[in-house]
## 1
Amino acid sequence: MSQPSIDDLVEARREYSAGFVTDVEAETLPPGLNEDVIRYISARKDEPRWLTDWRLQAYHQWQEMTEPDWPHLHYAKVDFQDISYYSAPKSQADGPRSLDEVDPELLRTYEKLGIPLHEQAALAGVVPDPEKPSSNVAVDVVFDSVSIATTFKQKLADAGVIFCPISEAVKSHPELVKKYLGSVVPQKDNFYAGLNSAVFSDGSFVYIPKGVRCPMELSTYFRINERNTGQFERTLIIADAGSHVSYLEGCTAPMRDENQLHAAVVELVALEDAEIKYSTVQNWYPGDENGRGGIYNFVTKRGVCAGARAKISWTQVETGSAITWKYPSVVLRGDDSVGEFYSVALTNNRQQADTGTKMIHMGKNTRSTIVAKGISAGRSDSSYRGLVRVSPTATHARNHTQCDSLLIGDLCGAHTFPYIENKNNTAIIEHEASTSKVSDDQLFACQQRGIDTEKAVSMIVNGFCKEVFRELPMEFAVEAGKLLEVSLEGAVG
Amino acid sequence: MSLLDVKDLHANVGEEDGKEILKGLNLQIQAGEVHAIMGPNGSGKSTLANVLSGRPGYTVTRGTLTLDQENLCPLEPHERAQAGLFLAFQYPVEIPGVSNMEFLKASTDSLAKAHETEQPDAASFIREVRTLAETLDLDPQFLKRGVNEGFSGGEKKRNEILQLLLINPKMAILDETDSGLDIDALKVVAEGVNRYRNAQNGVLLITHYQRLLDYIIPDVVHVLADGQIIQSGDKNLALELEAKGYTWLT
């Protein structure tokens, strides 16, 4: 029989479909990092003195820090002096006012990414035609380091919602930025967060006022484009008392030879009775089948439920990056607050992921749920690392963790590193874990009903991820399913 | 022309140098016929089902396989299914998280695409599946559950028959579908197979026991031993085997 085995299928690898480079004239700083570079970045952004100092302080602390060596990851260390820390599309100087003014290369990039035309116009800041209402998603695009366009501003402004690049918020709402920047992820939190604090390029800022339910999903598309440019987003979302916001983040990146560093920081603050839902679909270039190239994704994401009954929910679908180091976490400080983490992490070929979450219970009756699904194919290695910490003050805290791994082929690895630190004997902590394989029998059963192997694997994997996909907003659930299918095209030839 | 035509089939388990299980098997099934294959353990019954459906792990070393004049040998398993071959599994596998309805839709969509035929709209498809499920005593809730996930043995087998009726293939192979069924479930399964039977299609029943043949009356009964058909006859051969065992033949 000429039927290929799963191993053969995993060997084959489809070309990364978002792998292209946009030829936009860019202004890029030469590689290297020192105080002058930080002052330059800060000056270019016309930042206030306090922020320049804040960056410099972070830089000095970072110099004393070392890269974490505990993750289950193997990669060539990054030379931080070999990275350029600032890059901005030049045609941005005046800001695009209509589609005609936008660099056509940029529009072609959106097209290749499959961003619909009306959204492209929105991205470029063209006022939407009220006769033709477009999708209810406000988009703030980070194209390399500068936010290209911010849309739906009026609708959001009417609701009192602030949604703008953080560089703009520094000027328009300095009191909020000053109060909350670094309040969840301090400058010296960890090596990568320290670096980000020193050199962060741009990112989104969101403030939802008291009692406001954000009238639309907020969305950001990130792309890393300039050669050898590290990208250091900084996102800050504040949900004031009783407010509600759902934020979507989606990423793809063009094909590259060299490894590209990405060290973002995302901070979420949910005050009393507020709710933040943060969803990510990540598809950065994972490197080729031999592990050459690909993004290094070292991200610090953390939210704090600062007030009583606050809720923060992270949902992520990760299929890209060569190396992933990422633990979206929730600090449950307010009584009765809720933290959730729903994750699908898919690795193929030589990809490596060490990802998970931290749930820090401090308030009374705090509850957290963790559902982590890891899918490993090829020669990839995927680790779940999760911490559940219950402080002495967190009476009647509850956690439920479910951690499932699915293996495709027999050359990949899946690991689970759960950490439980309980200092309160009223807490209830549950941990469930399973490891399974896409079996030849399952594939054959599908084939015998006329379904080809590729479709079968995709169906089985989607079934495995169902609990997480359910948590995604509609717009993303479809995209996530498609993304898994594309990523698995690599896994099944 | 036979619907299913197997000539001088030799097949090994594993690669070329694997152990030979089928040793020159001949089998012709005409449209409208039901054949039963019986035989002792290890005679090659399940291997035959697997080789016909193209399951990985076997190598055909000699002989020909055709279904409705189409050569099956070079075809992938899903292409054989698309050519009209259906295998009801002895041990249906579980596919967690993939609902039965989703699975059935994926299957019929793939087959329709291969046949370049129109698919019914989703609503009438769901109605059709529900009606079939009812006739097989399957709770409609089971359509929302993962494929065979937590199903009882009987439910799994009835699910196979549901798929048989929905797909309506040219040729159905039932690999010990009767094993592990109580008498009520056996009757439901047999009724399903009888409903499927018509003048255009064919059935190959692989079974260990004569019991199933009380409910699905075969046109021809074959005895398989050591990779070859050593005896063929009408339904009375099955009764004889039941009474005397296989030893009088081998």
## 2
Amino acid sequence: MSEIGVGHYITLSAILFTIGAVGVLTRKNAIIVFMSIEIMLNAANLAFVTFATAIGDLGGMVMVLIVIAVAAAEAAVGLAIIVAMFRHRETVNVEAFNTMRG
Amino acid sequence: MSGIAIAFWVLATIAVVTSLLVITSRNPVASVLFLVVTFFCLAGLFVTLHAHFLAAIQVLVYAGAIMVLFLFVIMLLNLGTPQWFDVAGTPLKLLALVLGLAFVGALVAAGIGDFEPPASGPGAGVDPDILGSTEAIGAALYSAYYLPFLVTGLLLLVAMVGAVVLARRER
């Protein structure tokens, strides 16, 4: 309890990742599903930074920068898809986006 | 408790509570604002890990750029009110809760909290303040990791073009 170690950060990362995953499962609003994905990406970032600091390797920190860039790209493209779907369906309900269901 | 420990517990608590509010709040605008608070807490946690540059980038890119994009889309599509279809039914909610608790339980039981950094080997004696500095990360980006860095730039270009093409009104 007194000393904060790697385990504390990794456990927090696991909790945040799970919260994001539960959000993806329980929400039907496409925008909030995207926000849950951002929470999961951030949980992964926290784990990367923790291990990079713990083992003294810069690779984890560089990976976080790349993950942030991927998150930005994902948010831009994803929100553009939401805008395009909203024009067709007048809703952001993910259950309405079932055109490709087999 | 040391200052780092107090900072960790405060920031971790706020991060978990606000991220829970993100996925439970009915109002999308409230969700976005809670998510901004979560990102600020994570930036603070990066500071406690001596990753000062990444903390600054986290605030600039996530809390600044990405969340503005979310707010902009919500305002543009006029989705600032709770949506009738939004939350899944009780069975799915319970299932997600059980699966989530089981997942965290499995991870903790598997011992993810027991990791010990190696006492010897490469990088064992590195000063964390130097490791997370802007200078060290910049030097790594332009030397050992230059190819991933270039590909990231290409990815951002492709995403920009893709977003413009997708959001364009068809004629």
